[in-house]
Amino acid sequence: MKSSKKAVVLLSGGIDSVTSMFYALNKGFKLNALIFDYGQRHKRELASARKIAGIAGVSYKVVKVNFPWGGSVLLDKKSKLPHGRFMRKTIPSTYVPGRNIIFLSLGISYAEAISADEVFIGVNAVDYSGYPDCRPDFIKAFQKAVDLGIKSVVEGKKIKISVPLINLSKKEIIELGLKLGVPFKDTWSCYSGGANPCNRCDSCLIRRKGFQDAGIKDPLDR
Predict the structure, then answer these.
(1) Does 179 fall in a domain?
(2) Domain holding 209: CATH number?
(3) Which residues have C-beta within 8 Å of that of residue 207, sequence separation ≥ 6?
């Protein structure tokens, strides 16, 4: 018997979003993925997201989002990526202004249009780069805005923002992903793109530490 539960998952191709997707699949949701092409420095993560959606049998849409005002080194290929600032308290230059606000808004809109029950996003507040839009308080506030601002809720159908990884360390996320069958060899974390990870940017360093803490070799290590 097919599940009647339907959800939207925001899929970037990275460890967190992919594990979130496999978590939702394991819970029996019929998924629809949104992949965002927002002018990021490289298309490598888009290729990973498409490939993994195909592996998992999840239908997806690629949505183009334009940030013509910039505001992040991820949107400007001429800017230098920060290296060696892993887990500092300050917000890094890789932060994209309002990105999760915009992505979640699109996810909620899509969910309402297709009568989905939940929107899954792989935000994490433990081993992360310091982005304010990955914190539990942000998710709670956004959920409240959704509850007040969409037709579905007025008519009695709530759309839940699900953040199954928000309180997990990267080690715990990787361990969960292994149990769920996440194809880590097809995920992509590096901000630089290219054929191989740079192993110097924040995202690479967080990923490396996660695999090391889990006592597992990263399949992308060369």
Answers:
(1) yes
(2) 3.40.50.620
(3) 15, 170, 189, 197, 218
> Each residue of 49-69: pLDDT tens digit?
999 999 999 999 999 999 999
User: CA 51, 54, 56 angle in degrees (round to 5)?
Assistant: 110
Q: Does the residue 219 lie in any domain?
A: no
Q: Describe the crossing of helices 170-180 and 202-214 by its angle, rounded to 10 degrees.
A: 70
In a domain, 98, yes or no: yes
Amino acid (1-letter code) at residue 69: W
What is the Cα–Cα distance from 20 to 117, expressed in whole angstroms?
16
Question: How far are the Cα atoms of 52, 72, 141, 172, 173 from residue 31, in angstroms, in the given order?
Answer: 13, 30, 24, 23, 20
**Does this model's pTM top 0.85?**
yes
**How far apart are the C-alpha atoms of 185 and 220, rounded to whole Å?**
6
- How many domains, the chain? 1
